[in-house]
Amino acid sequence: MLEELAEKFVRQSGLSYWLIVYGLIVAGGLVGWIWSALSGRRARLGQAPFFVRLCLATLFLCVAQMASFKSPEAMAWMVTTRLAILLAASSLLGGVYIGRIAAARSLDAFGHMNGTLLVFIPVVNLLLALMASEEARPARRFGLMHGEEGAIFGVILLVLAGGGLWFASIPNGDLDEVLVLMKAMNATATQKSIREEGLPKALEWPAELARRSPDYDDTYSYVAAEIDRETITFTLRAQKAGGVADAGVLRLRREALCDDSVNAEYLKAGATFRTVFLDSDGREQATETTKAEDCTFPPLLRPWWAVPPSEIRLSDALGLDGDTPREKALSFLILPDSRIWLVSLALMMLGGLGSAAVRSTGTLGRAPYFLGNCLLVLVAAGSWTLLIPTPVAMVGERLAAMAALWALVQVALGVVLWRLAARRSRNAHGHAKAAALAFIPILNLWLLIAPPLSLSLGEKAPDALVVRPANSQYQAVGVLVGLMLLGGSYLAVVEVEEAISRALLRDDAPPELWIRLAINKEGIESVLKGLADARNPEPVPGEAFTLTKMRADGLNLYETWTVNEANGRFSKGQQAQFKGYHCSVEDDVSLMKAGAILHHAYVAPSGRNLGTIKVSKDICGL
After folding, report:
1. Which residues contact 401 (CB under 8 A, 6 or more apart)?
2. Are 109 and 134 within 8 A, CB to CB?
3. Which DSSP symbol is given to 462?
4. Residue 223: strand, helix, or coil
5. Are the CB atoms for 115 and 106 separated by under 8 Å?
6. How far apart are CA 33 and CA 50, in angstroms?
7. Over the stretch 210-219, which tens digit does the pLDDT of each residue have?
8. Nearest by Cα to 335 from 322, 348, 323
9. What is the pLDDT confidence band of residue 319, given thresholds at 50, 70 and 90?
10. 590 phi, psi to nearest 5 deg
C-alpha cells in the first residue's frame, strides 16, 4: 500500500506534483507558526536577514526536490518509497523553518505574528521583505546577512536554486543511460520476483518467453522450454540443414545467457540453464550447461541513494578497487586529483566539526589569519609525500598505514583551521558562527577580507586596533611570506605527483596502475590519442600477428593487425576466442573500464580484411 502511494506521488505530472509539494510546505509553515506563537520567544528578524534566510530555505527545498527528477531511476531500483519520504519530509521541514522566520519577520514589521501566512502567497510575500521594522534599529554591521550585501547574497542563492532545478529538469536523451536504466529495472524486478515467488516459480517467465518467441537467431529456434526445480532446459533446433553446434556456437550461447541482466539474476540465485542443440532432423548435436560460476558478472552499479545504509562502505563510496588494504591504498593514489582533494576537504571538515565541540577564545586579524592558512596549505601539500609508494612503503601493508596517517593529518589540519577561523570570525563579527565558511570554497574568502568588527561598525577603533606603521610593515611581511608559502605548496604538489608517477613505473608496481593513473589525470581521450601517436609498430619475427596501424577517434581506438600466414582464415569460433583474449588483456581492460571502445581489424598479408572484433566494457562484462 505504501509503495503504491509513493509511486503515485513521484509519478505525478508537473503541476500536480508541485501543488502537493506546496501543500506540504504550507502545512509545515503552519506548524512553524504555531510553534513560534506557543514557545513564548519574541524573536524579531529584519528585512535583509529574513530575505537571506528565505533564500537559503528556497535553495534547500530546490536541492531536495531535484531528487524528484530521479523518479524513473528510483522505480528501477525499487526505492520509490524512500524517495517519496525524502521529498515529503524535506518539504515539511522547509515549511516549518519558513514559518518560523516569517513569524519573526511579521513580529518585527507589524508587531504581531498574524502576518506569517503572507510568506506563502506569491507576490504578496514581497510585503514581508519590504516592510520596514516597526521599531528603529541601530545600523547593523557589514556581513552576508545584513544590508546590501545580504540582498546580493540572497539573489545569488535564488539564482543557484533556479539554475539547479532547470539543469536537473533538462531531458536526457542519452541512449546508453536509457539502456542502463532499463537493465537496472529488469534486474531489480527479477530480484523481487525471485524473493517473493521463489526461484522455480520465477523461472516460468523465461520459459514462457521462449514459447511465445520461438526465434532464437538466424540459425536456431526454440522448440521446447522445460523446468525441473531450479534447472531450466531450452531445446534449440537448427532451421537449415548443415548447421553445426561447434565450440563457437556454444560460447556465444553462454555469453548471451551471462550478458542478459534478467538471466544473470536467475543464475546468481542458483539457477542452472541447460541448452540442447538439435540438427534440422531433430538429432541431438551438443548440450551446454551454464551456472553462475561459468559467468563473470559485471557489478550492477547502484546510485548512492539506492544503496541500503547497511551496505554502504567507505572504500566502495570512494570507488577503490582491491581486496587488501595495500591494494585499496594503491587504488586511492591513482584517483583523479579532484577526488583526492574532496576526500581531504571532507576529512578536514570532520576535524573542524570535532574542534567546534571544544570552546575556544581569542581573536585574529586578517594578515595573521592569511599567514596561518598559507602554512596549513603547505602542510597539506607536504602531507602528500606520505602517499608516495616508495620501495619501503610497498612492503606488506605499510602503504595502507601511510595512507591512514595522511588521513589523520588532514583531520588535524581541520582542527587547526577551525580554531583559526573561529578567532577570525570573532574579530570580524563578534562571534564564531562564521568559522564554517573556512571550509566552503570561494565563500572562505569572506573571512580574509572582512574588516574588524569595530571598524565595520564605524566606531573609533580602540588603541589595540590602531594600525601603526610598524604593525603595517609586519602585516605586509606576513602577506609576502604567505604568498611564498603558497608558491612552495604548488611546487610540493608537482614534485609529489612526479614522485608518485616514477614510483608506479617501477617493476614491482602493478603494471596496469600507470595506465589508470594517466587516465585519471589526463582523461581517456588524451591517453588514447597519446597511445596512437606514440606507438611505432614494427614487425617481430616469429609472431603470428603484427600491429601495423593505430588510430584514435574520441573514445574509439582502431588497431589493424596483419596475420602472418598466407592462408589466414577467421572463423566465428576464432572471433569468439580472440574477443575473449582481448577482454582479458590488463592494459585493454584498464582502457575499456574508462570508457574506451577498441576495434581490432585483422587483415591478410595481401590486405584482404579477415574480420573485425569490437570490445568494450559492456561487451566484456567489466
Report:
1. none
2. yes
3. P
4. strand
5. yes
6. 15
7. 777 777 777 7
8. 322
9. low
10. -60, -40
Q: And the C-alpha cell for 510?
A: 602493478
Containing H/E element for 40? Answer: none
3-state secondary structure of 567: coil
Q: Which DSSP string do the residues of 289-308 spell out, in sequence order? A: EE-GGG--PPP-PPPGGGS-
How much is the pTM? 0.54
First vs last C-alpha separation in the chain: 38
List beta partners, residue 546: 562
Q: Under DSSP, is residue 553 helix (H, G, I), strand (E, B) or coil?
A: strand
Beta-carbon count within 10 A of 349 CB: 19
In the DSSP assignment, the letter for residue 341 is: H
Contacts of 456 (CB under 8 A, 6+ apart): 141, 142, 143, 428, 450
What would the grid cell of residue 481 be? 611570506
Q: d(Cα 460, Cα 365) in Å, to the nearest integer?
A: 17
Q: Evaluate whether 596 touches 587 at the Cβ level (below 8 Å).
A: no
Q: Which helix (H) or strand (E) holds 275?
A: strand 272-278
Cell of 544: 603470428
Could you please report the per-residue DSSP string of 420-435?
A: HHHHHHHHHHSSSGGG
Distance CA 580, CA 619 (A): 10
Residues in the chain: 622
Helix, strand or coil, per DSSP, at residue 606: coil
Which of residues 321 and 328 earns the better pLDDT score?
328
Burial class of residue 231 (count of CB atoms within 10 Å of its CB; 0-12, 13-18, 19+)? middle
Which are the contacts of 357, defined by CB distance < 8 A and separation ≥ 6? none
Residue 116 and residue 102 in contact, taking contact as beta carbons nearer than 8 Å: yes
Whether residue 276 contacts residue 284, with contact meaning beta carbons closer than 8 Å, is answered with: yes
Helix 261-268 crosses helix 175-197 at what angle (to 10 degrees)?
30
The CA distance from 41 to 38, in Å, is: 8
CB atoms under 10 Å from CB of 433, counted, come to 12
The answer to whether 613 and 600 have CB atoms below 8 angstroms apart is yes
- Looking at residue 106, its amino acid is S
Angle 437-443-444 from CA coordinates, rounded to 5°: 55
Q: How far is CA 59 from the centre of its chain?
A: 21
Three-class DSSP category at 226: strand
Place of cell 550585501: 149
Residue with cell 571598524: 455
What is residue 142's DSSP assignment? S
Report the alpha-carbon distance of residue 106 to residue 36 in Å, rounded: 11
Is residue 586 within 8 Å of residue 509, measured between CB atoms? no
Most confident listed range (22-31, 45-54, 383-392, 485-494): 22-31
Nearest to 43, CA basis, from 99, 118, 92, 123: 99
Residue 596, helix vs strand vs coil:
coil
292 burial (CB, 10 Å; 0-12 / 13-18 / 19+) is middle
Cα(98)–Cα(87) distance, integer angstroms = 16
DSSP letter string over 68-87? GGGHHHHHHTT-HHHHHHHH
Write out the three cell numbers for 493.
604538489
Are 541 and 362 within 8 A, CB to CB?
Answer: no
Q: Does position 401 have pLDDT exceeding 60, yes or no?
A: yes
Radius of gyration of the CA atoms of the chain, in A: 32
State the DSSP code for 478.
H
> Of the given ranges (33-42, 85-94, 404-413, 471-480), which has the lowest mean pLDDT?
471-480
Q: Which three cell numbers, joined as nine digits, stand for 314?
A: 567507505
